[in-house]
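Budget justification aside, the reviewers requested a transparent look at the raw inputs and outputs of the sequence design task funded under Objective 1. We therefore reproduce one unedited record. The lines immediately below are the structure tokens for a 288-residue chain.
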């Protein structure tokens, strides 16, 4: 199992980091009491719970119990478990600005000034900061920049492509899918609808697929489509996008678009992208 503990100053970006870790496959547990970490890990190891990457978030919401975190990490590591600690911090001015924008209360400033709560929290977290593997100062960082830092620490780009692709076929006569990121209109291709033997079938049936892909124009389009998505997907990953909807439309959404959506999905899976395929207008779904 891989374990990460995310801790640090309130308002420094822990929630954002949790979302990033979830995107790359970590099971994240927020506001974990430090004294329960070892017990939870033991439970996972001695049960059938299928978790191989776990991230705990421990912060000032635990009150003074957070001071036990440094000792818990030492005991955890001494028991043979590997654990990496990420400590997030930011300048006082940045934290104050963020709290004013969200209008939330600082956990250690319930009755006093915000700056007093920040100072108390820095003292409580001083020891754990010294024991952290990574210290990330989010002052002035955009979400994209923070994401890049976290991914550089924990994501193996050679084994995992951190974007989920949804390929959807649809018919223009029923409207364009509103959540489309990329849309391709394939109404220029020869239409099986006008073939008597194919009209009642869909792009999932072999005779329709054979008809759609027998034309040189289809073969050329597929080649260009492969080239485009091969170029674009790594760019979206670099930009921080984790989900992409590719819509392929024909007139009715039953023949050409379905066949091409299936072909593109197969290509993406061969290239190690997690891909969901749906056919909006012929009532058939396939997930992988």
């Amino acid at each position: 199992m891989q374990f990460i503990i995310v801790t640090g100053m309130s308002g420094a970006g822990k929630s954002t980091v949790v979302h990033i870790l979830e995107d790359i496959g970590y099971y994240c547990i927020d506001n974990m009491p430090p004294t329960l970490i070892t017990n939870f890990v033991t439970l996972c190891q001695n049960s059938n719970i299928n978790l191989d990457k776990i991230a705990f978030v421990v912060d000032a919401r635990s009150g003074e119990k957070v001071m036990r975190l440094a000792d818990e990490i030492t005991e955890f590591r001494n028991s043979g478990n590997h654990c990496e600690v990420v400590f997030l911090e930011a300048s006082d001015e940045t934290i104050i600005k963020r709290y004013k924008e969200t209008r939330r209360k600082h956990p250690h400033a319930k009755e006093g000034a915000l700056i007093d709560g920040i100072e108390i929290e820095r003292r409580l977290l001083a020891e754990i900061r010294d024991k952290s593997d990574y210290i990330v100062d989010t002052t002035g960082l955009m979400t994209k920049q923070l994401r890049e830092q976290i991914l550089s620490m924990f994501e193996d780009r050679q084994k995992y492509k951190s974007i989920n692709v949804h390929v959807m076929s649809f018919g223009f006569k029923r409207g364009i899918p509103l959540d489309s990121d990329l849309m391709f209109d394939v109404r220029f291709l020869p239409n099986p609808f006008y073939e008597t033997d194919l009209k009642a079938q869909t792009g999932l049936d072999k005779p329709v697929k054979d008809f759609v892909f027998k034309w040189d124009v289809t073969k050329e389009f597929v080649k260009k489509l492969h080239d485009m998505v091969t170029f674009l997907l790594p760019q979206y990953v670099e930009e921080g996008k984790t989900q992409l909807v590719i819509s392929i439309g024909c007139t009715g959404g039953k023949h050409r678009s379905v066949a091409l959506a299936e072909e593109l999905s197969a290509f993406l899976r061969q290239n190690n992208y997690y891909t969901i395929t749906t056919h909006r207008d012929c009532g058939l779904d396939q997930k992988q």
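Residues 284-288 have pLDDT under 50 and may be disordered. Residues 164-287 form one domain. Computational costs for records of this kind are itemized in the attached budget.
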